[in-house]
Amino acid sequence: MFESIKVSLDKKELPAPETGAMCYMMSKQGYLSDHDGHWHPDLMFFLPQMNPVTWGAELPGSPILAAGDPQDRLTVFLIPVGKWSDGTADSTNQH
Fold it and tell me: Which residues does 95 contact at the CB level (< 8 Å), separation at least 6?
């Protein structure tokens, strides 16, 4: 699957995400994996690969997290939010 995506990206058959492409993960039923379980409600922004510091991510005291996605040639920025989609508060655990 990764090779197919790589070939499609190389041929420009898959478009880059438009500026402002984002999603929100705010359901309590969200499940990352058996290893990670549930996480926190968050907003995710998808941009071309870049240094996360451009957005202030991963800096001391910054609420913005970042993850590189080399297969899709993206940088994903995650911003935890305080409430779930049902309006209840997230736990006070560190993100």
Answer: 40, 42, 63, 65, 80
Annotated domain spans of the chain: 17-80
Q: What is the pLDDT of residue 93?
A: 55
Place of tokens 């699957």: 1
Query: How high is the mean pLDDT of the chain?
Result: 86
**Cβ of 15: how many Cβ atoms within 10 Å?**
7
The pLDDT tens digits of the residues spanning 47-78 come to: 988 999 988 999 999 999 999 888 778 899 99
Q: Which two tokens stand for residue 24?
A: 């929100």
Phi-psi region of 76 (alpha: psi -120 to 50; beta: other; left: phi over 0): beta
Strand partners, 22: 45
Whether the Cβ atoms of residue 62 and residue 53 lie closer than 8 Å to each other: no
Q: How far apart, in whole angstroms, are the C-alpha atoms of residue 39 and residue 67?
A: 15
